[in-house]
Amino acid sequence: MDVKEAIRQRRSIGKLKQDPIEHALIEEILEAAVWAPNHANTEPWRFWVMSGEGRKLLGRGYAEVAIAEAKSGADAELSEEEEEQLRSNNEKKALRAPLVIAVAVSPAEKPVVPVIEEYAAVHCAVQNMMLAAHALGLGTIWRTGDPTYHPKMQENFGLSGKEEMVGFIYIGYPEVIPTKAARVPFALKTQWVTE
User: Fold this and answer.
1) How many other C-beta atoms are found inside a 10 Å radius of the C-beta of residue 125?
2) Which of 34, 69, 125, 161 is most exposed by smallest CB count within 10 Å?
3) Beta bridge partners of 42
4) Where exactly are the transmembrane stretches of this chain (predicted)?
């Protein structure tokens, strides 16, 4: 698939079939990720490939975040039944695709590389992954939100120091055909500077 075609056609797809994905395709997606641009070749990314029962790692993270948030609220008491229901509902979030790749930034210690550039590099890696998956006939959605950045999620994945989760790429064969999208023409957001 032509790269321009992939960029224009790729859409986030939240409804994915539970059909397993060949290991070779997963490796192609990860290979595309590590070719993202990164300042001083720090390669600041980490990946967790979760399928089958392995998705429970993410499910536990979602559950721990939800329980911690519920217990920190105004009414901090949860019954065992309420906690179990909260745990069950949140663990299911990890099962919405047959494959989930968690992506984290692991900033280098090199002082010449600002941390914001390490995040930019990992975000580029995510884009590469999603474009590669699209070119392979797979659908993806980059899931983020408050639970992604919560200390309980960081702890669940063993992140420390400046490391932080940047999102979860849900991958599978599309269950639906994505709708066409439109963008504001670049001319409306561009200034040409020649002098």
Assistant:
1) 25
2) 161
3) none
4) none
Residue in this structure with the two tokens 């639906």, named with its chain if needed: 176
Longest dimension (CA), the chain: 68
**Which residue carries 């179990």 as its tokens?**
84
Residue-wise pLDDT tens digits, 114-143: 999 999 999 999 999 999 999 999 999 999
DSSP 133-149: HHHTT-EEEEE-SHHHH
Residue 64: enclosing H or E segment and its boundaries?
Answer: helix 56-71
This prediction has a pTM of: 0.93
For residue 13, count other CB atoms closer than 10 A to its CB.
22
Rounded to whole angstroms, the Cα distance separating 139 from 175 reads 9
Locate 47 and state its tokens: 């990946």
**Which residue has 């998956």 as its token pair?**
133
CB-based contacts of 192, cutoff 8 Å, min separation 6: none
